[in-house]
């Protein structure tokens, strides 16, 4: 992939958030009664359901809109969402799995070098911003792919974006900028 | 102007003129004076070119500036006077406040936020015009939550399109140390300290901390507090000062103690101990308890001590590396037997590099090039032996979060690679999530019992 580095960087996806619709009204009380692993939150108007495999937490609203969080890949999220839809079908609702969309992907990556954050921010103004009193990482936002990268001085970075492809592109884009501002390790 | 074709109904004459009486036009007979016809009371042409004027606008006087804006600008001036900044900063911050106040993001916010906005304008102007102050100072002045100050600051910078320079901690130390009331006027003699000396030593300590990974990513104020405390203790290390805890010091200097400052003090003392060990004329062991007395010497010769410490560390690592490579051999150093070692030992390449390292380290080392290359070779060795290196363990100075990782290192889960998302879902799997009717009934009963017992 990258010709500049010899070892491949491990981009580990830690969270995928996806939404889908069931196209029918859902009775939250029934779900809370007949489902296991369910937490009912009447004050907010939703039900939290946790699946074991894949490890997913879903927020279910009575309008039929559902948000799934906690998956570790896009396909995993889709599988979990389909499981959830099937489960609701079995509980007696006329569910139609539709409008599945991955909304957010969070990934972490570790650079093999430490980074001098002040230099990095100076070289990349105004896309990068760093306020040490507020947050220990520098934030780098790539508008055209809608990705946000938080760069820590130890070399770890966290990337959030709308899908896995954008996240990978963001890491590729930011790597040369980080490489320029690396801190020598022995110091 | 006479009109043809019309005859007066009264006298029948055709001498009819168009008379404009006031604003109403009438057709009047000249002979008998009777009105033949009249126009509408409000003729359409009179208002051509004019527009409807609302009542409030017609009765309005010259527009007065908003009262809150005036108060806000006065607050900006007051903050500038308290901080004793120069007039350039004062004027610029008033301009920015005016601009930001009128913007839609800030025109309708609460008064508290508008006050915070005043402080943020002063902050950004101080940064732009090279008079660095911390956000902590501003939030203290405004008595506001630092997070709210941060939020407003970031939004304001985005709206006004300013790019303030990032301040280094060392620049802020001087301004911060002025807050500590340690002159002989305020405190008894054994605690009093000249602020110039205090600042100079604190700056040196902060620079040392920045070189050894204590400052990066941390909030600056606890670091500065720790530096000032240690420099105060070390300028006159008598028993009064050494016994004085951080809490008591903050009480004496009349500042608010920050909790992370104690941790920073421990970290700084560790670094000072590592350097203090290298001082040739110190006989006793340097521990965090007695390192304060050596701080003056350490800071004076810190670059030389850093080089020595790094070299010692490299030698220790090299010895460890050799010991682990040559576990089956009785001789410790055998550069002539390297060829045999290559055949016998499975880690052939690492052994060769070990020998190379031994030769290089034995050469008289001077300058910073040597530690650099030796450490690079070391990273190669370690990485060939250990696939997931924790680089914090290998180097002398590393950020505490890398040396003592609390979280497990994240590894990609291999089993998830086979998931496609469109697989079949078996019924039994789904049934495990549904309660049987019996279980549902029991659940409702238990719930009811529970609520009843709660009520009673």
TrEMBL record, chain A:
The keyword Lipoprotein does not apply. GO terms for molecular function: DNA binding. CDD domains: TLF. GO terms for biological process: DNA-templated transcription initiation; embryo development ending in birth or egg hatching; transcription by RNA polymerase II. It holds the Pfam family TBP. The keyword Transcription regulation applies. It is found in: Cytoplasm; Nucleus. GO terms for cellular component: cytoplasm; nucleus. Keywords: Cytoplasm, DNA-binding, Nucleus, Transcription, Transcription regulation. Its main location: cytoplasm. Belongs to the TBP family. This is TATA box-binding protein-like 1. The lineage of its organism: Eukaryota, Metazoa, Chordata, Craniata, Vertebrata.
Automatic annotation (TrEMBL), chain B:
The keyword Transmembrane helix does not apply. It is found in: Nucleus. One of its GO terms (molecular function) is zinc ion binding. Keywords: Activator, Metal-binding, Nucleus, Repeat, Transcription, Transcription regulation, Zinc, Zinc-finger. Residues 411-420 have a biased composition (Basic and acidic residues). Residues 329-350, 406-429 are annotated as: Disordered. Pfam families: BRF2-like_C_cyclin_rpt (PF21886). The keyword Transcription regulation applies. Residues 4-37 form the TFIIB-type domain. GO terms for biological process: transcription preinitiation complex assembly. InterPro entries: BRF2-like_C, Cyclin-like_sf, TFIIB, Znf_TFIIB. Belongs to the TFIIB family. General activator of RNA polymerase III transcription. Factor exclusively required for RNA polymerase III transcription of genes with promoter elements upstream of the initiation sites. Contributes to the regulation of gene expression; functions as activator in the absence of oxidative stress. Down-regulates expression of target genes in response to oxidative stress. Overexpression protects cells against apoptosis in response to oxidative stress. This is Transcription factor IIIB 50 kDa subunit. It comes from Sander lucioperca. The gene is brf2.
